[in-house]
Amino acid sequence: MSTPALTTATPAIDPTFENVWDELLWRGLVHVSTDQEALRALLAGDPITYYCGFDPTAPSLHLGNLVQLLTMRRIQLAGHKPLGLVGGSTGLIGDPRPTAERTLNTRETVAEWVDRLRAQVERYLSFEGDNAARMVNNLDWTAPMSAIDFLREIGKHYRVGTMLKKDAVAARLASDEGISYTEFSYQILQGMDYLELYRQYDCVLQTGGSDQWGNLTSGTDLIRRAEGASAHAIGTPLITNSDGTKFGKSEGNAIWLDPEMCSPYRMYQFWLSTADGDVIERLKIFTFLSRAEIEEYAALVESEPFRRAAQKRLALEVVATVHGIDAAAAVIAASEALFGQGDLSALDADTLRTALEELPNATVASGTPVLDALVTTGLVSSLSEARRAISQGGVSLDGFRVDETALIQGALPGGVSVLRRGKKTLAGVFIG
Q1: Could you name the CATH architecture of 240-353?
Q2: Which residues, in sequence order, are bridge partners of residue 429?
Q3: 285-336: per-residue pLDDT in tens?
Q4: At what angle do helices 276-286 and 291-303 cross, to 10 degrees?
Q5: Alpha carbon distance 53, 207 (integer Å)
Q6: CATH for 29-236, options being 3.40.50.620, 3.30.930.10, 3.60.21.10, 3.40.50.170
Q7: How distant is the alpha carbon of residue 166 from its chain centre?
Q8: Is the pLDDT of residue 213 over 70?
């Protein structure tokens, strides 16, 4: 398959901003923070060390984590030094959910997920140059510590009254489920991480989601109490859709960064379906397009919304960032070919198969009549409806109109077929 010539934004700080802090504000990445003037001065000065933590509570990161990964990359591009923390110890516990206790995963599972998440985080940071990134695992300093040492050295700095006021804890205390001492202690463990990184690397900034604000300030408070020093935190906003629906879900499924858990094709379609009212904010947060470029897309959304130029650029940028430019090219070619703007027979077999898995589909024997396949895939409800659709010239197989005698052969790459009824109603057919 010939790869379309695609151009994506080069990761860079927009030079029209005086300071990376100003760019973070413009992109809507600061929902809550410690002292803003101090942060602005800090980020404008000599390189600092900062960190963001990722707990292995699943085998992959998701779009919510991508906000943090790209925020880390932006700050690194401004010359600062990132620490990517994967929580080998905090992942054994998990931060408190709003309604119920987490099911604890086995140590073996957590260790496996630590490795997987570490590899994902590493894709978004640079490990070269004067501000090269480092990866750390909080199990390294937590595992050797005894319970007595933990209580004497860390626990003495915490006040239970303050801990009870944290949003996550307060929500659980008000629920029927209550909260265990294990999850209640999570904020202490995360605070200890920040203290350890402050001591080891002079780390003075932590980023995270605003829903983690209580855990973020646990660390800044601990550093102040234990070391008499100031440290900072930035809480990014929780992304929501303009219509009030939850962001980051597609038909009830999370959009994972692991291609085995969410195909590049499904990720591309997810971004392509972004509403006009959300797309500009998504371009600010999830791409490295400049302010000028984003303003041009904002004008196009207003003047020519039917072209969906902003959505197409958003989908290209994010899929290329997460999965690479070749994967982005393949899914764009598949998307265009499936909807009549390209050659189905020229597509990459794996990309075509994963795309068809996202459509209504069925497995049939080779030589099955198209009439039967239309019913089996759900494109029509009966054979009589299938005959009527074909007689009206509204059915195609693998890009060509067919009559009632047509048979399914799996003629496309990978031994699959594509059934189309009308212009936009598609189904995948697998031979088995």
Answers
A1: Orthogonal Bundle (1.10)
A2: 362, 417
A3: 999 999 999 999 999 999 999 999 999 999 999 999 999 999 999 999 999 9
A4: 170
A5: 8
A6: 3.40.50.620
A7: 26
A8: yes
